[in-house]
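Record format v2
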Amino acid sequence: MTFMSSPVEAADLVELKSVDRHFQLGDQTVKALDAVDLSISCGEYISVMGPSGSGKSTLLNILGLLDQPSRGEYILDGISTTTLKDKARAAYRQSEIGFVFQSYHLIPRMTARANMELPLMLAGISPKERAARIKPLMERLGIADRAEHLPKQLSGGQRQRVAIGRAIMMKPKLLLADEPTGNLDTASGTEVVKLLEELNREGITLIVVTHDLELGKRARRQIRMVDGRIAQDVLAGN
Amino acid sequence: MKLSDMARFNWLVVSRHRFRTAMVMLALIIGVSAVNLLIGLGEGARLFILGEFSFLGKNTLIVMPGKKETTGGMPPISGESPRELTLRDSQAVQRLPEVRLMAPLVVGFAELSYQGRLRESLIVGTSRDFMQIRKLIVQQGQFLPQSELEEARAVAVIGRKLKRELFGPEPALGRWLRAGDRRFRVIGVLSSKGQSLGMDFDEVMLVPVASAQALFNQEGLFRVFAEVRSYDYVNNAKDRILSVITERHDGEEDVTVVTQDALLASFDEILRTLTLAVGGVAAISLIVAGVLIMNVMLISVSQRTDEIGLLKALGADGTTIERLFLSEAILLALLGGISGLLLSEAILAMGRSFYPDVPLGSPVWAKVAAFLTAILTALIFAYIPSRRASAMEPVAALNEGKGVS
């Protein structure tokens, strides 16, 4: 089940074992995830597609430790996360997982630099080291001249690049993107996708949830979800 | 998360929500400055009143006729006392080795007249030592002469106001004035000692004790002041005076010897309790500020749900979120507390410049207490909102802004 030969190892980064996620809506139980089994190796590029309510966002939230399975087991990097306490889960989110959201989720009162600094600040890294880490990353993302701008002074593409910078600041293994181009025009959307793919080529495991068929088709492995189940899991070109 | 980063993060929150911050600060400023102001006023009044009454030094003992049965009660009204305090008693006190200065006191009112000008005045018969015990300063002439206590010389020292009213701009020294049915030659004029609730020396006439006894036809002394050589001897001297006079009064203990401190202590306690009471009432206003803080923080938490979700996604655990919100409340309390202290100190300083006689000002403990109460209130009332923020599920918080997808 290895799709790409990682230079170091091909061990599973993510393993879901018959994971359920149920929501209670009134007296009705909605199965957002229904017995999902999934293995993801280091360095993969995966797209998750499917109609609204198919459970793709729930899958992403569970993978990102933002949500907990109702049943089943989630093994991240060899460790079962099901029994982890809040502190440990937070520590994983901090160091192992990066998030990119459709609506960027930048804090409006903070400058681009301060937004990118946030994960480092939460990790208790000294201001000196923060500055040393941010500068090259901002240059790489092409937003160095926007460092002191507030989010509202940036274009959508620039905002999403700041958000991506924030997501990879802690050098996570897993980058989760939920409709990363959903709020962008085609040109800046393409730019953002290229940036994410570039990061993937450098070794980060990239999972993109999207409605956009064209974006989905770019991934090497494409998962299609229907009614909380994985309906299709194919490798590109097959 | 580092404390400095937390402070910077919260500073942005606080400075971006100016109106909200201003409201919370206003409530805290009112609370803190009310506590500080009221305690400052109370303390000022207490010190002023004590200052007015504490005309005697620490090592001065007061001998009063009559036996005070229990502490805190009033000495018996004259007449009840079987035996008077006599001049000879006071001389016995003076002979004690511990006693450095002794002044017997006979007081009464009499009508003074000089060339047709009449004035009712307080007349105090005493000795030369009285000047030192009460630290009086003679402006013109001299004080009462050093002489035998029984010697009823017709000399008088008068207060400044009395001099002005009886003599006008004319010199008073050497003039004879009439008091009741006796005549006295003015030998000195006192320098102003300012207002003193105990006795206003601007309007008093001092004469030798024997002259006053004759004038008022009264043997018994009103008081005897005895200044002890050093504070260490005060208790010792108190016992000695008591035993000497008891012995002279056929073994009957019918006088009371007290220090001024003892007289003022119960008075002081009442004033202190009052000050604390008004300070406590003011502290209640801080609770009102606390409720406001709680509401503001609850709104802040619900307005910033997606921010909380984001912070959690970026690796903040519940404790970090809780601390973040608590520290925001502390920051507000610090700002409000410091402003409140500054404001109330400014008002107290203004009060001092208008009424220089009253030592308005709160003690350090009151400022610390007012400040800490503000911080503590903020912490207590921000606890529930902070817990609420920390308990939020990251995914629920993040989806809030998006609506259901």
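Residues 83-253 of chain B form one domain.
The two ends of chain B are 33 Å apart (CA to CA).
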